[in-house]
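Suppose you are handed a protein chain with no further information: no name, no annotation, nothing but its sequence. What can you learn? This example shows the usual starting point.
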Amino acid sequence: MLSERLLTQAVKICTDSYLKLEPTDERRLPAPDPDKPYMLYMHVPFCERLCPYCSFNRFPFSEDRAKPYFANMRKEMLMLKELGYDFESVYIGGGTPTIMIDELCETIDLARDTFNIKEVSSETNPNHLTRPYLEKLKGRVQRLSVGVQSFDDGLLKQMDRYDKYGSGQEIMERIAEASPYFVSMNADMIFNFPAQTEDILISDIEHVVASGASQATFYPLMASPSVQRSLANTVGRVDYSREYQFYKIICELMVGTDAFEFGSAWTFNRRGAAAGSDGFATGDQAPMIDEYVVDYEEYPAIGSGGITYLGSNLYVNTFSLKEYNEAIESGRMSFMGSTHFSLHDRMRYRFMMQLFGLRLDKVKFKQDFGTSVEQGLPLEMMFMRAAGAFDVDDDVELTLTEKGRYLVVVMMRQFFIGVNSLRDQARAALCGEERQLLFG
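A reasonable first move is to predict its three-dimensional structure. Written in C-alpha cells, the prediction is:
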C-alpha cells in the first residue's frame, strides 16, 4: 500500500531526527505541574529467558540481581513523592514484573500507601498464571496483561516459548482460569510473524475469543536494528506488504462478531466485561485502556531502562543494573541521557496518540498548543485526509475510518521502532559482564 510506505518513511525520518539521546547531568526529574494528571511507569527488567524479538531492557533473572533492584525501585518511588508527584495509575512493565511475586507485591503496596492509586496494571508471562500468583495479585492488580504472542504451537516453538510456557491450549486454559481475578485480563498478541499464515491468524483470534480474556491487544511485529538479526535468524524477515490484510482480518473477526469492540487502534475490549474494586468480575466498570499513553500523555518512569516523558523532555534511565543501583543508593535518579521535543514534535505526538485512542479532541488541541491542528500540522492533516483516514472531521474532533485505524497502527509501529532504536543507544553503553549477558 502506497500510503503505508509513505507514512512509514515519514515517521522514520521524524523519529530519527528527534529520538537522539544527549548526555544529561540532571540528578532528579522536574517537579510536577499541579494541573496535570500523571501515571507512574515501573520497569522490571528480569526474564527467565530472553526472547529474540524483544527490544526492552531485560536481563537473565537471578535473585541476587533482582532483590536489591526491587528495593532500589521502591527508594526511587519515594524520590518522586518528595518532588510532589501523585499518581492515580501505575503500569508495571518488563521484562517479567511477576518474576519475584513477593517483591512485586511489596512494591505495589508501597505505591498504594504513598500515592492515591486507583488502578494498577502489570505484565506477566503464561507460566505465572497459577493460583499462588493469582491470589497474591488479586486486589493489588486491576489489569493483568499476559504475553501470549500466538496460540500456535509451531510459532511458539519457533519463538522459543513452547518449552517455557506450554502449548497454546494450555495457555488458553490458564487465561480462562485467571480472568475472573481481574478487572481486565489482556492477552498480548503479535501478528505478521513471517511464518504466520492467514489460517494461523484466524485460529489465534478464535483462541482469544474462546479464552475468556476480557481484552486483547494485537501488535504488529516490530523490532529495533539491534534485534533484527536475531529476529531474522529465529522467526524470519518481516513482510510488511501483508500487514494491512492481516489487520483487516483481526478487525473483522474481533469486532464483526459483536463479541469485542475497539479500545484503541490495536486493542479490543470484550463487550460487557468489567469488574469490581476487589478485582472480581461484576459487569459495571469501564474496561481499562491498553496503552497508558492515551490517557496519560506525561509519565515519570522508574527502574533501569525506564523512559520518562515530561513537558518537552524525554529522559532515559541507564540500562546498567550496576549503575542504576549506584545512582539510587547515592540519592539521585539514574538518567543516562535525554532528548528534547520541539513544539512541532509535541503536536505530532499528541496527534498520533489521540488518534491511536480513536479520537482527537480539536478543541483541547487548540487550547494546549495555541493553534488548530490544521494550522499546526498542515502536512499531516493533508496526508490523512487524502488517504481517507477520517470518519468525522469537524470543528470538534477527528475520528477514524478502517483505513485510518490501520494508518495509525503504521504510525505507532514505526514510532515504537524509533523508541526501540533509542533503547539501542542506551544499551550500547553497557560494558563488562552486563554487555556479555546481552550480547554474548
